[in-house]
Specification:
About 45% of the residues lie in helices and about 25% in strands. The protein is of the alpha+beta class and about 120 residues long.
Length: about 120
Amino acid sequence: MQSKIFEIARWTPIEQPVAFKAIYRVLLDKESGPKAGNLLAFLDRDFVIERFRELPFERADYWRETATPMPELEKWIEKEREKIAEQTSEITVDGPLTANDFTFTMKDGKRLRKRVVVEGGLLA
């Protein structure tokens, strides 16, 4: 289960340490805890599902908090260029926000997502 959590964390535009902190905060109200995979395996499945579903969620806030500035993304792509096997992107518009989710498939088979958000206009 631990490796699945790492895989899912890479698939979201959330840095892995932040993703694990979020799990501990939601389930234990702490910054850290036992291995998240072990914790989730130990806890009642219905409790975990219900706990995560009851969290308030605003898409615009999530997009803003998980966005990477375009210059930072360009720098990351340049640094990782030799490791990237494929890159795709998907643009989603929600009111005044436009999000471009970039998915990178690495040569080792891992997939990562990075997000760029623009307010009040379209992405270039």
